[in-house]
Amino acid sequence: MPLSDASPLPLTPEARAWLDTALAEVAADPAAIRTRFPAVRRHCGRGPLPDGRTIDEAARVLLLAALPLRDQALADEVAALHRYGDPAEQRAVLRALPQIDREGTGRFLDLVRGTLRGNDNTLIEAALGPYAAAHLPADEYRQAVLKCVFCEIPLARVAGLHDRADAELTRMLGDFARERTAAGRPVPEDIAPLVRPFTTTHGAM
Question: Could you name the domain of life of the organism this protein comes from (predicted)?
Fold first, then answer.
């Protein structure tokens, strides 16, 4: 979906008019996002989209992408929206990170790290999108994957896993699987594909 174009969203005429106005206001005055961002669900609704997001989440991403800020000013504004937002607003911020960090600096990693220390599975999933896959250091990425396994978050929802899986992650998941088996507890089926490519050199799980 083009981040500068709300037309693909299934909005009523009234909701579309509100969002178009809000986007123009944010582009002209960044401070406008502080009142428009929380109001999105009330004006645009929260129905599901085919890509797994909700309408309000996608609309909030558009507002974030419209911010005419850069560098520290952008980081401060986005951090404040995340800090004071409800979970739906926080999910939108996390999913928008690849679009708003236009230079690919990784400057928003603290938002990802703070989320991964929490226990809200929906936020953890949102944090482990393409931004985390591109910028999280290897050891932190492995720990995040292991946390998903503990929290029973399907690994198919973790971005970049096919490319970032390595022998050390395999070892960690293998240890987890053996501990679960020894305790008579089920082992999540979705860790097997990650372990299998390395079993020839690291032993079977």
Answer: Bacteria
